[in-house]
Structure formats: structure tokens, C-alpha cells
Amino acid sequence: MARPSLSAVAELLKPITWFPPMWAFACGVIASGVALDGQWPRIAIGIVLAGPMVCASSQAVNDWFDRHVDAINEPQRPIPSGRMPGRWGLYIAILWTGLSLLVATLLGPWGFGAAVAGLLLAWAYSAPPLRLKSNGWWGNAACGLSYEGLAWLTGAAVMAGGAMPGAGSLLLALLYSMAAHGIMTLNDFKAIDGDRQMGIASLPVQLGVDRAARTACWVMVLPQLAVVGLLLNWDKPWHALAVTALVLGQIQLMRHFVASPVARALRLSAFGVPLLVTGMMIAAFALRSLEK
Fold first, then answer.
1. Which of 21, 126, 244, 250 is the most buried (most CB within 10 A)?
2. Angle ∠(51,57,59) on CA atoms, nearest 5
3. Per-residue pLDDT tens digits for 158-179
4. 179: part of which helix (H) or strand (E)?
5. 177 phi-psi bin (left φ>0, alpha ψ -120 to 50, beta other)
6. CB atoms within 10 A of CB 63
């Protein structure tokens, strides 16, 4: 049986997508308030779990169950192009899921539980019968929760010795998971034709391009404004000001995006999302100073 090349396997696992959960894990580590000294081995394991393991597993799962859609939207991908022959895409998805669970056992009950939840969401997002991605509201919520919220909470739990993270981390993780719903919608603008043909009700398909673009912007902005409110309530005005400035920068980019969503979705992802995730880290440092 033909086997895929290592380059095709790497492309299937999409290293470029690993950054968001790795960053969110780091935010959880910072927000915990726990001293970093002596914790670096566990932190390194957690970062590997969040990105090269769980996130990579989700990418392989998604590409396998999306292979018919990708044949329309992105035929150059490993599976529709034939560079990932036979059922190798599915085999790699299963193997990486198992390896992720094995690595997660090193991080205590909360770290393991978060990894299990993230992997379940990854399979539920792409695979029948649930295939949450068939509806943009549910699918994007699953991605946002997995990529941001669960990764953040895993970082906080690992630093707390496997215990439940504090209320502050839970709130911030939830709010940034909600904001990530809008980020996920930005990715849907490039696949409208294939999604429509294959019956995938992404938000651009459900709402139309213009309404989906405005919805994505509001879903990104409102949770961040709630974060600003939390920071002010925690008596962290300078952190709140910094996050507000980052939100204003995003709004400026969003004004251009809503004028031409399909053409400018990638630009908002490239320049607006880094502003959002910078605000995540600022909020994490604010919480760290409270937790100490």
C-alpha cells in the first residue's frame, strides 16, 4: 500500500495552526500566578500537548472528514490531491489522538480532562453523526472553546498541580473562547462555494456575506469589552487601557473588512487577530498580579 511522504504528513498536521492553543496555554500558565521556577518541564509538555498533539489531531480529523469539500475549495491539500493516499488521513488522525491522550496523562487530572474534552470536540466538530461544523454557530463555538478556553484552563490547571483553575481564569477563558467564535467565522469566507455545495451552513452561507461579517466583528469585540470591564473591576486600569487600545485597532481593521468581507477576511485574520491575542496575554498578566 502506498504511503504518504513526511512532507504530506506535516502538511496534514498544519503546524501554522498550532500557535493559538499554544499561546492560550501560555496565557493560562501566566494567569495562574504560580512561580515558573522548576515548572518548565511540565510547561513544555503542556505546550507540546496543546499544539503539536491536540491541535494537530484536530487538523488531521478535519481534513479527513472534509476531503470532499476540500476537493472543491482547496484541491491542493494532501488528501484530495492524492499525496495522502488511501485512508492514511484517518489512520494519522486516530494515531495522533491516541498519542495526545498518552502525553496528557503526564499533566494530572485537570490537564488530562481538558485534553480529552478538546479531542472530543475535535472529533465532534468534523465527524458524523454530530459534525458540528455543519452549523457555523455550533462548529465555531466548539473550535473557540477548544483552541482558546480549554487550552487556557489546561495551562492554569497544570500550574496549580492539576487542581481546578480559579474563577478569574475561568472567566477570561470563557470570554476569549467567545471571541474566538468570531475568529473562526473569518476562516469561512474563503470556502463559501464549497460549503454551499456540500450543505455546510457556515455563517456566511446562513446569514449572507455582509451579515456574517458584521456578526463576526461583534462576536470578537464584545467579549473583549467585557474583559476590559473585568480589568477595571480588578483595579487594573493600565491593563484595561492597553486592551482597549488593542480593541480600537481591531475596530479600525474591521471597518475595512465589512466593506469587502471575502477579499479582506485574510487581512483581518493576519493583522487583527494578533491584536486580540496580545490582549489575552495582557489580561493574563493582570490576573497573575492578583493571584500572587
1. 21
2. 90
3. 888 766 788 899 999 999 999 9
4. helix 167-188
5. alpha
6. 26
The helix/strand/coil state of 135 is: strand
Q: What is the pLDDT of residues 191-226, one digit of tens each?
A: 888 888 888 899 999 999 999 999 999 999 999 999
Residue found by looking up cell 487581512 in the block: 267
Give the DSSP letter of residue 190.
Answer: G
Query: In residues, how long is the chain?
Result: 292
Cα angle 128, 148, 62 (rounded to 5 degrees) comes to: 25
Q: One-letter amino acid identity for 42?
A: R
Q: Across-strand partners of 135?
A: 201
Q: Is there a contact between 31 and 288 (Cβ–Cβ < 8 Å)?
A: yes
Closest by CA position to 156, among listed 167, 145, 142: 167
Q: Enter the C-alpha cell of residue 286.
A: 493582570
Strand partners, 201: 135
Pick from 172, 201, 148: nearest CA to 22: 148
Please give the helix or strand (H or E) that residue 91 lies within, else none.
helix 88-104
The residues, any chain, with a CB within 8 Å of residue 221's CB and separated by 6 or more, are 179, 182, 247, 250, 251, 254
Residue position matching grid coordinates 480600537: 248
Q: What is the DSSP string of 193-207?
A: HHHHHTT-B-HHHHH
Cα(155)–Cα(274) distance, rounded to whole angstroms?
20
C-alpha cell at 253: 481593521
